[in-house]
């Protein structure tokens, strides 16, 4: 995408707190090939969260000392459900892999 480091951008379903309704968060993805990617999600408060993918699987996030949230990822079909503490992101395989 011209003028950005991203290969693609769009919206992903997200929720910022346990029991909170699912909304929509903007994302941009930097693909490195072979399913390796960095997905930058802009949360509703404007802060960014980077989720790392290796070989098409979510493997971690941009953890800081202030982050205490456990990283968990499950898969349902082509949908990756990623939880970081109370945050929840739903990212389809095509975001990291292209296509």
Q: What's the short version?
A:
With 99 residues, the chain is mainly beta. It has one helix at residues 93-97; strands at 8-15, 23-33, 36-42, 48-54, 57-61, 71-76, 79-84, 87-92. The longest helix has 5 residues, at 93-97.
Task: Report on the architecture of this protein.
The protein is mostly beta strands and 99 residues long. It has one domain (8-97). 5% of the residues lie in helices and 57% in strands. The protein contains one helix and eight strands. It has one helix spanning 93-97, and strands at 8-15, 23-33, 36-42, 48-54, 57-61, 71-76, 79-84, 87-92. It has an eight-stranded antiparallel beta sheet. β4 and β5 form a beta hairpin. The mean pLDDT is 93.
Helix and strand layout, with pairings?
Elements: E1 8-15, E2 23-33, E3 36-42, E4 48-54, E5 57-61, E6 71-76, E7 79-84, E8 87-92, H1 93-97
Antiparallel strand pairs: 1-2, 1-8, 2-3, 3-4, 4-5, 6-7, 7-8
Keywords:
single chain; 99 residues; mainly beta; eight-stranded antiparallel beta sheet; 1 helix; 57% strand; globular
């Amino acid at each position: 995408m011209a003028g950005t480091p991203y290969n693609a951008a769009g919206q992903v379903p997200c929720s910022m707190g346990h029991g909170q309704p699912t909304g929509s968060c903007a994302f941009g993805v930097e693909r490195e090939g072979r399913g390796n990617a960095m997905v930058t999600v802009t949360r509703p408060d404007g802060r960014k969260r980077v989720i790392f993918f290796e070989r098409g699987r979510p493997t971690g996030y941009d953890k800081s000392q202030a982050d205490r949230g456990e990283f968990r990822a499950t898969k349902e079909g082509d949908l990756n459900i990623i939880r970081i503490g109370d945050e929840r992101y739903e990212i389809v395989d095509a975001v990291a892999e292209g296509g």
